[in-house]
Design goal:
This protein has helices at about 1-25, 30-50. The protein is mainly α and about 55 residues long. Helix 1 packs antiparallel against helix 2.
Length: about 55
């Protein structure tokens, strides 16, 4: 469970950071809602990892 949360949080945050860069290079509109949701999911994953660090 710990590894899944770590991979999910890192993957979501990395995608939320790189997605606007890729879209701006392609001259396409940036989907900010999707990027903000991915960033929130990544932060939420890290929050759960920190909150339950002794139980995982």
């Amino acid at each position: 469970m710990k590894k899944l949360l770590t991979w999910g949080a890192v993957g979501l945050l990395t995608t939320a950071i790189l997605d606007p860069i890729i879209y701006s290079m392609l001259d396409m509109p940036i989907p900010w809602t999707r990027d903000l949701l991915m960033a929130a999911g990544g932060v939420g994953g890290f929050y759960l990892l920190i909150k339950y660090r002794h139980d995982l």
